[in-house]
Write the C-alpha cells for this entry.
Amino acid sequence: MSQSSGSQIGGISWSDTDINAFLGQPTEGVLETLGRVEGDVMILGAGGKMGATLASMLRQGFEKLGNKNRVLAVSRFSSPNSRDELESLGAETIACDLIDRDQVQKLPDCENIFFLAGHKFGSAGAPDLTWAMNVLVPGYVAERFGGSRIVAFSTGCVYPFVPVDSGGSREEDEIGPPGDYANSCVGRERIFTYFAKKKNSPLALYRLNYAIEVRYGVLVDIAQKVYQGEPVDISTGHVNVIWQQDAVARAIQLLDHAAVPPFILNVTGPETHSVRDLAERFGKIFDRPVKFEGEEQPTAWLSNASKSMELFGSLTVELDQMIEWVADYMKSGGDLLGKPTGFEARSGKF
C-alpha cells in the first residue's frame, strides 16, 4: 500500500489507512448506479494513477450492496506493487499488454468496461508510441468488447485553449488541440465512437481535467514547488481541479449514461482557479515566500463542468479541503507518486 509513516489528514493516520481505500469510498450516487449494474466490471489500464481508486470504489460499492459482481483489473503490471495493491483492494488481476492484439483477444468477456490506458509523458520524443497506445489500442479494445458498455477515459486536452474568463470549453464545442498527445486523444475518441456505432456498444467519453489527491495532481505540483522554494510557472495561469473520489464516482455513474452515439461529459470542478492564487495560499500555509516565473497567458486548457453538476450534483470535497489535505500531507513527509501533471505545458508536448 502507498502510505507514509505517521502522516495525518483530518485525524486519519495514513500509516494505518490505505489512501486508495479512503479515496474509494462510494457515494450514494455510485451505490445507486452499481445497484443497476448487470455483470462484471473490467478496468483496462488499472495500474495507472486512478486504477486503484476505481477498483476500490467498485469493490466497496458491490460489497455494501451485497452484490457478487467481480471487478477485474487488467494491466501489464510492470510494477508488482500495483498488482499487489489492486488485489489487496479486492480486485481480480489479469496481466495483459494491451498493445498486443492477440493478448487483448484472449481477455475474458465482460459486460462493463472502463478504459484507462494511455500514453502521455514522453509523447514528444515518441509520437509513434503515443499514437499506438492512444489510438491503436482503443481499436483493439473496442473491437474485442463490441456490445459491452464502455466508459472511455479521455481528457480536457481534446479542446483548444480558451480565454480564462470564458468558463471553459463545453461538450458541444469543436475539438482541435495542439501537440501529438492531445491529438492522439482525439483519435482515441474517434476510434471508440466508430466501433460503438459499428458494434452497438453503449459508450461514454469521460473528459477529465485534473484529478487531485494527496500524492499527485496540480495542487501537489504547485505545493511542492512552494515547499521546496522553487519558482512556480504561471504561463498557464488558470486550472480546473476535482478531488479524485469525486472524479471516480462520476466515472462509475456514467455507466448509466453510456449510449450510441456516445454520451460525452466534462469531469472537473465547477470553478476556474488562478495558479498564482493557489501558490500564494500554499505559501501562507507553509510560511514560505512564493517565487514565480513566466507570464500569465490569456488562454488555458479549461473545461466547463455545468453538465456534470446538473447530472450528479455538487462535489463531496471542495478546494479548501483539498488544499488543506495536500499541505498537511506534504508537511508531514507523505510519499508522493513522483508523477507531475505537466499542466504548465502550452505547446502540447509532454
